[in-house]
UniProtKB/TrEMBL annotation:
Pfam families: ADH_N, ADH_zinc_N. It comes from the Bacteria. This is Oxidoreductase. InterPro entries: Acrylyl-CoA_reductase_AcuI (IPR014188), ADH-like_C (IPR013149), ADH-like_N (IPR013154), ER (IPR020843), GroES-like_sf (IPR011032), NAD(P)-bd_dom_sf (IPR036291), Zn-ADH-like_protein (IPR051397). It comes from Pseudomonas vancouverensis. Residues 9-323 form the Enoyl reductase (ER) domain. GO terms for molecular function: acryloyl-CoA reductase (NADPH) activity.
Length: 327
């Protein structure tokens, strides 16, 4: 038996409870991981509260990230005792995830835990930091360099935004952060933002083209914010889109793309091939200032995760929430 959060839905309603789970209940997979740490992401908050139909089958253990040790392996790339991590692949939505002390998984979804990280540090970074790194790789692939001008980061107080600012700053870029939280300006400055703008300047309906300002953009907001970011990106700039905090819609025109040659790069963190995942995590090992992790993240116990989920959705928790599943 092991402890985990189990979400169920039946005639009595939708509920997430912390309970004892039998190993016989684990889903199919060719590796079993003794989980050390997981995280609480937006998807996990939605899954635990039931406020959005994230969970696709029941019962379900949430948790889209995990780091731990291989306990049983039928996969050629991993042996018992290997340290591994996982992001995405529908885990926590369609396959039992990391908010439990054990997980049975498809070994193809795992990558080795880089030696630069402890399991706790890897989860402090998690899907958010990994996604931010994928965005930066997309900017670099399109030739964006620090000398070309300012890079806008929207949703700056969230996990992706926080890591994007820290990574861009260390790589030499000038970062402008967009946020609606005046109280967090000092936090964003400490991460590396040179200027902070009110998200209201981007979140309302705008013009098809605006004055050119951004060499590049990392956007986790979508909707009007993404449309306005594209409209004010410089000629031949790149906008990396990875989220939809404001909405899934994209009320824009083709003008920035056909008149200025702007590239809109979609970032899919869920099903990236293993080589790309390893590349991103190796870059995180060299390009992230680990001293910022305590500023960006904080740790809670598995027993606190259910109560923390609605607070996460309400925007009351800054940055990353790391979950120690063994307490």
């Amino acid at each position: 038996m092991f402890t985990g959060i189990l979400i169920d839905k039946d005639d009595s309603g939708y509920r997430a409870t912390l309970q004892q789970i039998s190993e016989e209940q684990l889903p199919e997979g060719n590796v079993t991981v003794r989980v050390a740490y997981s995280t609480l992401n937006l998807k996990d908050g939605l899954a635990i509260t039931g406020s959005s139909p994230v969970v696709r089958k029941f019962p379900m253990v949430p948790g889209i990230d995990l780091a731990g040790t291989i306990e049983v392996s039928g996969h050629p790339d991993f042996k018992v005792g290997d340290q591994v991590l996982l992001n995405g692949w529908g885990v926590g939505e369609g396959h039992w995830g990391g908010l439990a002390q054990k997980a049975r998984l498809n070994g193809d979804w795992l990558i080795p835990l880089p030696k630069a990280f402890t399991a706790a540090q890897a989860m402090a970074i998690g899907t958010a930091g990994y996604t931010a790194m994928l965005c930066i790789l997309a900017l670099e692939h399109n030739g964006v360099t620090p000398d070309q001008g300012e890079v806008l980061v929207t949703g700056a107080n969230g996990g992706v935004g926080s890591f994007a600012i820290a990574l861009l700053k260390k790589l030499g870029y000038t970062v402008v952060a967009s946020t609606g939280r005046v109280s967090e300006h000092e936090y964003l400055k400490r991460l590396g933002a040179s200027e902070i703008i009110d998200r209201a300047t981007l979140s309302a309906p705008g013009k098809p083209l605006a004055k050119e300002r951004w060499a590049a953009v990392i956007d986790s907001v979508g909707s009007h914010t993404l449309a306005n970011a594209c409209a004010s990106t410089k000629a031949n700039g790149t906008v990396a889109a990875c989220g939809l905090a404001q909405g899934m819609d994209f009320p824009a025109s083709v003008a920035p793309f056909i008149l200025r040659g702007v590239t809109l790069a979609g970032i899919n963190s869920v099903t990236q091939p293993k080589a790309k995942r390893i590349e991103a995590w190796n870059r995180l090992a060299t390009d992230l200032d680990f001293a910022l992790l305590p500023l960006i993240s904080h740790e809670i116990a598995l027993s606190e995760a259910i109560d923390a989920a609605p607070r996460l959705l309400a925007g009351q928790l800054r940055g990353r929430v790391v979950v120690d599943v063994n307490r």
